[in-house]
């Protein structure tokens, strides 16, 4: 990554952002940027130039500023950068009309239609299924011995199967979704063009599934109706949700709803295994039936090493001043959530993992009208996964040197490629 336009730095002084060393531990570099170049223009590996916002106060302001559009049409993009600011393949697959790419009033309308699926009541009703999936996956990988890759065997399949159930994807088709999703989160680690092909396959499947569900939709809603059926029903009752919008919404709920949780579980488990005093503190609380530390603990894990490193793209619709820096019309802006959530101006001892941290208004799920719609479900999955792992596998431990672990490439998300662990298999009947 090259840099330019920072009033307080030169390219030679700026940390080598997005190097392999940076990916393993980006926080020292982010600390440097917060202090010396808090709103910093940089050229990304894709060739796109964007402003990085790294301080908490600036980040919070930026996330809520309606002069910064989510619509890529506002990007003053050169030809070489065209199509490089979103999910690979979404333009070609006609999947652009989702919540991450639109502004009010369309955003307001679409968000209202899908928000009912993520109410506290709906998420609570889904909790037994999440627990069932969690136990089933632990049963599978513990039945094969005393080692596992917690990303491949647990953190990845859990949210995929959960979001498929929520959307209404038939069980017999969910392994296809798992394959497509696996390709999508490799971020260049798979065959060339693999992400775009997976997006295209998922788009075709969703179009067919929406058509089938529309044909079979009962006249009145039934208890526990799946989300795709709910979207279709809203469309049919005057809310003007097109079939393409329904497909795009289902796609982004799956895409955004699984990778964040994969990384929450993976990063969270890794943090606990490398901070044994905090892990033991949580295990003691769980053994005593106290889930309060679990709840604050997941929020702290989201702050400390969260699943989303940078918020998704924003584009200035008019000149904007952020942190004293003028952003011109059409310029892309990326809020570095990982940097903001370690800002010492906002968090005491920000580089310390404290599962009991109370004053913790982190930005891990964003802020403002684009605050993550699926945050309640992700929290449920994260809490269930971590509590069950620590309870059923109390001696869970890393099976690799932390320095040997590799992080997935990509601009927005932060997650491990693998997480090798060892454990004593649970006794028969142990839960």
Topology:
Blueprint: E1 2-3, H1 20-24, H2 27-36, E2 39-43, E3 49-53, H3 56-63, E4 68-69, H4 106-115, H5 120-142, E5 147-149, H6 150-155, H7 157-167, H8 174-184, H9 194-216, H10 227-239, H11 243-273, H12 276-287, H13 292-305, E6 314-316, E7 320-322, E8 325-327, E9 332-335, H14 337-340, H15 375-392, E10 397-398, E11 420-422
What does this structure look like?
With 431 residues, the chain is an alpha+beta fold. It is built from 15 helices and 11 strands. Mean pLDDT is 85; it is low at 1-12 and 187-192. The chain has a 6-stranded mixed β-sheet with strand order 1-2-3-9-6-4.
Structure, briefly:
This protein is α+β, with helices and mostly antiparallel strands.
Largest sheet: 6 strands, mixed
Rg from Cα: 21 Å
Question: Can you write the helix and strand succession as a string?
Answer: EHHEEHEHHEHHHHHHHHEEEEHHEE
Q: Quick one: overall form?
A: globular
Beta-strand segment tally = 11
Percent strand: 5-15%
Summing up helix and strand content along with how strands pair, one would put the structural category as: alpha+beta
Strand order of the largest sheet: 1-2-3-9-6-4
Q: Roughly what percent helix? A: 40-55%
What distance lies between the first and last C-alpha atoms, to the nearest angstrom?
48 Å
Low-confidence stretches: 1-12, 187-192
Number of helices: 15
**Average pLDDT:** 85
């Amino acid at each position: 990554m090259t840099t330019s336009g920072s009033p307080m730095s030169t390219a030679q002084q700026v940390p080598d952002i997005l190097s392999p060393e940076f990916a393993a531990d980006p926080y020292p570099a982010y600390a440097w940027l917060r202090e010396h170049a808090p709103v910093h223009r940089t050229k990304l590996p894709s060739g796109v130039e964007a402003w990085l916002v790294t301080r908490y106060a600036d980040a919070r302001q930026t996330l809520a500023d309606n002069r910064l559009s989510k619509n890529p049409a506002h990007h003053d993009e050169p030809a070489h950068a065209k199509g490089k600011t979103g999910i690979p393949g979404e333009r070609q697959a006609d999947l652009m009309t989702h919540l991450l790419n639109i502004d009010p009033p369309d955003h307001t309308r679409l968000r209202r239609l899908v928000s009912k699926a993520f109410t506290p009541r709906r998420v609570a009703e889904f909790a037994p299924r999440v627990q069932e999936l969690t136990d089933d996956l632990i049963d599978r990988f513990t039945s094969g011995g005393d080692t596992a890759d917690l990303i491949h065997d647990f953190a990845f399949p859990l949210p995929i199967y959960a979001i498929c159930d929520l959307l209404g994807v038939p069980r017999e088709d969910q392994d296809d979704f798992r394959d497509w999703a696996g390709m999508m989160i490799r971020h260049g680690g798979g065959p060339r063009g693999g992400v775009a092909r997976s997006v295209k396959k998922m788009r075709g499947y969703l179009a067919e599934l929406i058509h089938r569900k529309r044909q079979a939709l009962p006249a009145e809603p039934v208890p526990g109706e799946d989300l795709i059926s709910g979207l279709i029903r809203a469309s049919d009752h005057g809310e003007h949700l097109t079939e393409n919008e329904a497909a795009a919404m289902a796609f982004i709920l799956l895409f955004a709803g699984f990778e964040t949780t994969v990384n929450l579980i993976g990063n969270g488990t890794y943090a606990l295994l490398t901070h044994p005093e905090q892990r033991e503190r949580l295990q003691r609380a769980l053994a005593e039936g106290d889930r309060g530390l679990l709840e604050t603990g997941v929020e702290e894990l989201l702050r400390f090493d969260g699943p989303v490193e940078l918020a998704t793209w924003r584009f200035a619709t008019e000149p904007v001043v952020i942190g004293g820096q003028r952003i011109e019309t059409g310029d892309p802006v990326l809020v570095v959530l990982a940097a903001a959530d370690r800002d010492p101006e906002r968090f005491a001892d920000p580089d310390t993992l404290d599962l009991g941290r109370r004053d913790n208004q982190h930005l891990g799920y964003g802020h403002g009208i684009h605050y993550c719609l699926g945050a309640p479900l992700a929290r449920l999955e994260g809490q269930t996964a971590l509590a069950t792992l620590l309870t059923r596998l109390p001696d869970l431990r890393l099976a690799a040197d932390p320095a040997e672990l590799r992080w997935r490439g990509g601009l927005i998300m932060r997650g491990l490629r693998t997480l090798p662990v060892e454990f004593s298999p649970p006794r028969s009947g142990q839960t």
